[in-house]
Amino acid sequence: MDSNRKTAIIVGVLFIIATVATIISGVFFESIYDPDYLTAVSANENQVLIGVLLMLTATASLVAIPIMLFPILKKHNESLALGYVGARIFEGFFFVVVAISLLSILSLSQEFVNAVAPVASYFQTSGTLLLAVFDWSSILLDFPFALSALILNYLYYKSKLIPRWLSVLGLIGGALMLATSPLHMFDLSPSLVYLAAPIGIQEMVLAAWLIVKGFNSSAIAS
Fold first, then answer.
1. Is 13 helix (H, G, I), strand (E, B) or coil?
2. Where are the domains of the chain?
3. Measured distance CA(163)–CA(160) in Å, rounded
4. Which of 38, 40, 111, 183 could link 189 by a cystine bridge, Cβ 3.0 to 4.6 Å?
5. How far, in Å, CA of 127 to CA of 125, rounded?
6. Distance between CA atoms of 201 and 217, rounded to whole angstroms?
7. What is the pLDDT of residues 5-47, one digit of tens each?
8. Is the CB of residue 161 less than 8 Å from the CB of residue 119?
């Protein structure tokens, strides 16, 4: 098995890990949405920690993807290949901020529960600020994610490393994600959440394609 085939398989697996870990991690964060989250988070400490570990796993995977792809993509457009690396690192930064905010909320919750006479206003204000960091970081990471999808699939389309129908689906999905992301900032897009589905489906189909078929060898050689 040549190095390009190995790269395709690794990248495909990394896409799956990043997506699955991100989705599953959300299940473990439900306690932060509890009206009494200052006590609920502490009571669900293990779940929150597992969720954070899953999020960090997703972060490592999504940052590793462009690093693995760079030697192949730079042959077709080195500037865009670097741009893809930068976009995914920026996305990873917001993932880390989300993880840190969750750990901070957990620490705050533990202090609240252990305090003999907790000052409710102090803990509620601190908790509100930390939840805001969590929410805004979760929203802002959509921008580099959508941008990275557009860059990657444009490179795929131009290079023909994968079938063009698959890269076109990625371009459409990335454009929809980028167009609707600003609406989240104004809380205007709950009903448009399904528009994020195309890029999610495309990434899983892409992952399966890379694992089973790999890259177009003639496109790599060109």
1. helix
2. 3-221
3. 6
4. 183
5. 5
6. 24
7. 999 999 999 999 999 999 999 899 888 888 888 889 999 999 9
8. no
